[in-house]
Amino acid sequence: MTGARDRVLDAYETLLIDHGPGAATLDAVAAAAEVSKGGLLYHFASKDALVAGLLDRLRERSAADADAIRTSPDGAVAYYLRTSAPGGPVPGGVTRSYLAVLRISEGSATGQAIRDALAEVDADAFAALRAELDDPVLAWLAQLVGDGLYLRTLTGTPLPPGLGVEDLLARLRQHFPVADP
């Protein structure tokens, strides 16, 4: 059973993603989470506290995803690209949290905290890729490819017809020291 705090964060993410920051009022979040406003305020005393809670959730999910990247039996690069691509497996809700944070990043009073959280998420993934790839430029290249795939996932843009993540991995394995499954 999901606790009230998680239901509030789930509702906040959904409102941000589906309707934007203007629709994510405390009253709307409480109603969507099916908690009283007092129940919401018990967990998050203000809108800024709610944003901070969402950033903490993103960091936690990102750290778990970085661990999954490092320990994937198929290798870090393969995991990162597969989970970044449209229609790929979604690791632990990190995509929803990331998208929700992106929705509040523009014009937010907590903009620096948001940028810091996103930089931490980026650093987690880079460090996990570096655990497999000794060359930092190759690790960054793999991250940029994954980021491009992730952008397609976030925007709902499909991959080019006839091409998929396995095609990318096959080509990378031809030219770079990327782990084979």
UniProtKB/TrEMBL annotation:
Keywords carried by this UniProt record: DNA-binding, Transcription, Transcription regulation
Keyword Repressor set for record: no
Ranges annotated as DNA-binding: 25-44
InterPro entries hit by this protein: Homeodomain-like_sf, HTH-type_TetR-like_transc_reg, HTH_TetR, TetR_CgmR_C
PROSITE patterns per UniProt: HTH_TETR_2
Listed transmembrane segments: none
All copies of domain HTH tetR-type, residue ranges: 2-62
KW Transcription (keyword) present: yes
GO molecular function, one term: transcription cis-regulatory region binding
PANTHER family: HTH-TYPE TRANSCRIPTIONAL REGULATOR BETI, HTH-TYPE TRANSCRIPTIONAL REGULATOR RUTR
Name of the protein this chain belongs to: TetR/AcrR family transcriptional regulator
Species of origin: Pseudonocardia petroleophila
